[in-house]
Structure to design on (269 residues):
């Protein structure tokens, strides 16, 4: 019995070590990265990009119950421009791409609970589908329409940033084409939504750590540029030297995972 107990104990410790509970808390901005809220379609190979409405609601409620203020991009810009400190109990909820399910599932939950969110929009897929995926390997799903984006913005619950015109791998494009993707999406979104786009996220995280590509992002006029690298970024933010990292929320993440993201900068190894 002693041997069995020891084996079970070691196995349990080994399994739990995959989570980051044993790491020391790390400081920095807490920026959550979501994609889709709903159920993945049959055949999806990217199920981790889907968070169920029930789980998303539980996570937002966890934030609010634990005293977190949910910030918009404009809130962050005011802090940045004034040199003010970032409140310790603050978090940005971000969504990549601009899916219709952000409108049908995520927005109602945020609005009901009194939280705010931010969506990085791919301009040329507004009202269409996620055309950057190969439908033979990942089913297309609908993107939010311009009318839906405007309705969410008018509610005061959702703000927007740019995610390029077409969701390319920016690092694989000629530099002038990458610059156009970033400049033109900012211009088009501002014209369509009537507000400054102060934030940008690199599709796939590609280009975030390329000095040439990042220079073009900052030259396009964005105050903030967000990577897809897991982690937290110190505040005050040194804009000249680094992008802002984020905390990717998987479809399988629960509230314990969320707490580890917020405190340790990652939930799992």
């Amino acid at each position: 019995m002693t041997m069995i107990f020891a084996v079970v104990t070691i196995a349990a410790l080994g399994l739990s070590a995959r989570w980051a509970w044993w790491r020391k808390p790390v400081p920095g901005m807490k920026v959550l990265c979501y994609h889709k809220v709903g159920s993945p379609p049959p055949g999806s190979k990217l199920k981790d990009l889907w968070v169920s409405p029930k789980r998303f609601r539980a996570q937002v409620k966890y934030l609010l119950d634990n005293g977190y203020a949910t910030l918009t991009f404009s809130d962050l810009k005011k802090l940045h421009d004034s040199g003010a400190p970032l409140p310790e109990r603050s978090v940005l909820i971000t969504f990549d791409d601009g899916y219709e399910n952000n409108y049908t599932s995520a927005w109602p939950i945020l609005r009901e609970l009194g939280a705010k969110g931010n969506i990085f929009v791919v301009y040329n897929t507004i009202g269409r589908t996620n055309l950057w995926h190969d439908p033979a390997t990942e089913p297309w799903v609908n993107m939010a329409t311009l009318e839906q984006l405007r309705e969410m913005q008018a509610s005061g619950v959702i703000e927007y940033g740019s995610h390029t015109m077409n969701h390319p791998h920016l690092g694989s494009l000629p530099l002038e084409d990458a610059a156009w993707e970033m400049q033109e999406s900012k211009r088009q979104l501002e014209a369509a939504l009537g507000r400054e786009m102060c934030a940008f996220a690199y599709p796939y995280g590609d280009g975030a750590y390329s000095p040439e590509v990042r220079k073009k992002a900052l030259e396009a006029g964005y105050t903030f540029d967000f990577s897809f690298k897991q982690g937290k970024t110190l505040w005050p933010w040194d804009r000249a030297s680094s992008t802002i990292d984020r905390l990717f929320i998987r479809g399988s993440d629960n509230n314990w995972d969320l707490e580890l993201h917020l405190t340790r900068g990652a939930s799992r190894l």
Notes: Residues 25-264 form a domain with the TIM Barrel fold (CATH 3.20.20.370).
